[in-house]
Predict the structure.
Amino acid sequence: MIAADTAWMLASTALVLLMTPALGFFYGGLVREKNSLNTIMMSVAALGFVGIAWALIGYSFAFAPGSGFLGGMSFALLRGVGLDAQGTIPHLLFMSYQATFAIITAALISGAIVERMRFGPYLAFITLWSLFVYAPVAHWVWGGGWLAKLGALDFAGGTVVHINAGAAALVAATVLGPRKDYGRQAILPHSVPFTVLGAGLLWFGWFGFNAGSALGANPSAALAFTNTLFAPAATLMVWTMMDLLRTGKVTAVGGATAIVVGLVAVTPAAGFVGPLGGLALGALAAFPSYYALLFRARTRLDDSLDVVAAHGVGGTVGALLTGVLAQKVWNTATDGALFGNPKQLGIQAAAVLATIVYSAALTWGLMKAIGAVAALRATAPDEGLGLDVSQHGEEAYARGEGAILILDEPPGPPTPAAAPVLRAEGGRG
């Protein structure tokens, strides 16, 4: 084992872990105040539920020796996962680093289903999804599975993380249906500064996400680090120009979204393309996600925080452009189509399609199975009241010193005359 590699991977693991609460801030600022805590908790809870599932079974499904489709059970309950070397770092550290990927991938899906999914079924869903959707796809690409043997390139998670989560988000939002106010009234962000803060913290953590995927302090990490700096910068610049040309204004929400799109798009390519290729990739990625977001807003699909446009579309563009822009000169296993190997683009397309189909099908099955046991959606009165109160019994912002929340709910079905009454005592008025 090499001390420098271990030190870098310890830091990278911490950086990627930071991305999950950062995602909570990014998403939490985009929803209405009455749902902000619930939205943040959808990310934070993944740290516990998905993290434990990963340690017990998920890591084994993804990285233990097995078939081309799924890893075996030899690493279940972390058997055989100790301080022995996995490459140049301890095996235990590799497992922990990969755990942070599983956690944030599941949390990404929450952006499509905020403000209406009950918290208990959500916890069941992300736990099962991490085991039966995320872990198998991780095995396909990174665990020696069939996509790895096919030659698919995914440096840090274009297919495994972003396309996987984007496909799941599309299906989950469709199964749940739109929010009761969707299309009837404006649903506006309650704290844009929260969202910008979240985007900044995500960018910071993403250096561990991409450069850490080199699994050591080495030239590949330096390349991935550089691409993680400049590709989102290019996306942000192009997105800003499109906003100016289309509306004459540049929104902070648009800028924060552009940063995330650029980070998503460069993720599969970070260690496979040169800096100029990373700049080109970031610039090109702005267009499909920008117009996908505009198109979605004209449909009945309530992908609340545009997970599909940012992660699904951004990840797909990044994965395909990896097959175009990859170069052996940057220590890549193969060249891309632009450098004489058009076959690589076909392999990337196959990986994208397989991930979308598998994730969508399994997500639909999990949502329907959980829905057969427990109601997925909050009731209309609870949705109107806000999921912070109905699911967590608290509010994001106290309205006065000593405020006490009291929920009076008369027996019987709610009616306009006998609906739950929310009142506050001790300074709320």
